[in-house]
């Protein structure tokens, strides 16, 4: 079990072997990019700067920094100061981003150089690339971190007060999920569930010191570093990732299913253990990773409301002959139940404390239909409207109100299966009588352009199916209709 002392576990443990590498770089080399001492010094410097700027325990710090050493240093510094971290995604579009920041009410927004540029001088170029940001300084005070925005790393290192121990009941993370721009929904984790999640990953992966781990999420980087293992961020281009993995021969690699599929297209020779999650992980994908040389290939089931819940290795998934998608046994401490509607409910130390602005809860409603078979969790489909594309969660309710423009009777976003658990996003538009499709397409250009990473792959026209006494849109039927229209297009 991971524990905290009077400071932060990451900062303090990095100092036990200060000259060992913390991060490896070079896209295919084993060159040390950052030592453990340098990472600890960076986090300590940032903590001093944040405290000097007036942030105190319980304050909210919004974070818009790409995954990597800088983001990890800011998170470690914030935990050291007992701040609440609100993770914001600049790719969600300006309206949703503005709503998220308003709901989080951060005392400070920390951005890296790319985000600051995209919201400032490079805004016209960023919009052409699909990134549309509002003027961030109008929402919250902004400070940069990194080589070209070194506000938190400039000047002399300032002192930080000590505390006797951690406050396990304090808020640690705010992660936005769904809702509307008028009422965004966000998951709130406390320090206790954050530590439980780190411990669960550590027990599952069992990282060994000195051997590289490849991955870019907090729940990959932090357990590796706490165990004394260096981290390498996966190369963005799959052709380079092949060479990177061959040179590093990591003990463990974490990739999303789309990353894994792109990697396998280059016919790599793999080694070590592979873990994949953030989207459905198929039996076929895990088998292909094993066939390419991976010692083990694991599918990990987790969600924003509950850090790792269950895990299954390729062999067990291959040998399963029942119906549904085998996710494997629940991880230690996690309990599951299935209600009368078939929805899977979760509880345990890794689950969230509440939704932002709502009362605490002890149960996680997963929105997934499933059952328990001999202690294994088996899913039978999703009950909620969320769409999964390229490991991104897309919540239609965030964007559909803005698509109900003049001339549109109804507009719904639906997911269409694209193979291997992935989906394409389609917008099904029902025009008002007498309105031309060409005019609607033209009018939709602006709201679609503000959807960021959620922009649909296809726009199709037709009558939106309705169901139930309330005559709400039938999303399953709408998805089938959109799929048929695309086949005939």
Can you give a write-up of this model?
The protein has 3 domains: 9-194, Rossmann fold, CATH 3.40.50.980; 197-335 and 361-382, 3-Layer(aba) Sandwich (Rossmann fold); 387-488, GMP Synthetase, Chain A, domain 3 (2-Layer Sandwich), CATH 3.30.300.30. It is globular. α2 crosses α3. The model is unreliable at 1-7 (pLDDT under 50). The chain has 489 residues and is of the alpha/beta class. β24 (422-431), α14 (437-449) and β25 form a beta-alpha-beta unit. It has an 8-stranded mixed beta sheet with strand order 2-1-10-9-11-12-13-14. It has a 7-stranded mixed beta sheet with strand order 6-5-3-4-7-8-18. A 5-stranded antiparallel beta sheet has the order 15-20-19-17-16, with no helix packed on it. Helices cover 31% and strands 28% of the residues.
What are the salient characteristics of this protein?
15 helices, GMP Synthetase, Chain A, domain 3, disordered N terminus, Rossmann fold, eight-stranded mixed sheet, 3 domains, 27 strands, 489 residues, alpha/beta, seven-stranded mixed sheet, globular, single chain
Summed up:
This protein has 489 residues and is an alpha/beta fold.
Strand order of the largest sheet: 2-1-10-9-11-12-13-14
User: Biggest β-sheet, characterized?
Assistant: 8 strands, mixed
- Return the CATH topology of the largest domain: Rossmann fold
Separation of termini?
55 Å
- What is the CATH architecture term of the largest domain? 3-Layer(aba) Sandwich
Low-confidence stretches: 1-7
- Number of helices in the DSSP assignment: 15
| Helical proportion, percent range | 25-40%
Average pLDDT across residues? 89
- Identify the overall geometry: globular
What is the number of E strands?
27
Structural class of the secondary structure composition? alpha/beta
At the first level of CATH, the class of the largest domain is Alpha Beta
Radius of gyration: 23 Å
